[in-house]
Hints:
Elements: E1 3-14, E2 17-28, E3 32-36, H1 43-51, E4 58-63, E5 66-67, H2 71-74, E6 77-80, H3 92-102, H4 107-120, H5 136-148, E7 154-158, H6 166-181, E8 185-190, H7 193-197, E9 201-206, E10 209-214, H8 216-221, H9 228-234
Parallel strand pairs: 3-8, 3-9, 6-7, 7-8
Antiparallel strand pairs: 1-2, 1-4, 4-5, 9-10
Helix pairs in contact: 3-4, 4-5
Adenosine-5'-triphosphate (ATP) binds near residues 19, 39, 41, 43 and 191.
Amino acid sequence: MEKVISLNHIAHSFGVETVIKGINIEIDKGVIFGLLGPSGSGKTTLVKIITGILYPTEGSSVVQETQMPSLKKMKNIGFMAQSDALYTELTAYENIDYFASIYGLSRSERKQRIKKVLEIVDLVKHMKKPVRTFSGGMKRRLSLAISIVHEPEILILDEPTVGIDPLLRQSIWQEFNKLKNEGTTIIVTTHVMDEAEKCDELALLHDGYVIAQGSPKDLKQSIHVDTMEQAFLHYGGGKS
Ligand SMILES: Nc1ncnc2c1ncn2[C@@H]1O[C@H](COP(=O)(O)OP(=O)(O)OP(=O)(O)O)[C@@H](O)[C@H]1O
């Protein structure tokens, strides 16, 4: 298996508070890797470190054999942050077009891919509306469209389906699986157990530590429980 991401002894502090504590994770190409943990456990901080947006206090994030941060590698990464970074006076189409042009897509590539991603997130009929008129869920869907428009090799999604209804959530997960089958490596943070079940591999985070790691099946089987929720509680997760 080709390693795409290696996190080596990562620790991170904000002032005197250490929020990431000695994390080692290796992620293979073409898997959906979930970071599961309660609010404040360090998921967002960790994905920011992986992408190179945040420089860790200790350790290193290596993406495709390159130490982050690396501008070159950032072009191979699609990142959907937890808060939507959108231009509210522009339309949905214009927002995607703007980010696609930053990624260097030609006019014809943009036209074709924007159409595709708008369909995936079910925003075709709203594409000409200014984003200021969008609901929270619509903004999330637009952010997702932007993160995949340049067909990145690595897709990092911080709670991508918050505020998205169950039906669309299901079709978005189908799309993640499709991207995975095409070789995209996907990292997704969540505190929703049924989403965790859909990941190939999981790291359970609690208070800045990885408390368990493995496939959902292995994590459940090794302690003889039926649900991820039970597994998470067993391993010491739950509320911080
Ligand atoms: N810029 C910052 N300055 C100070 N403390 C921060 C900062 N960002 C995060 N933290 C703290 O780091 C800890 C981990 O936060 P983080 O956002 O990584 O958690 P999370 O697991 O993503 O939570 P959530 O599920 O609520 O998004 C929290 O205690 C948070 O208060």
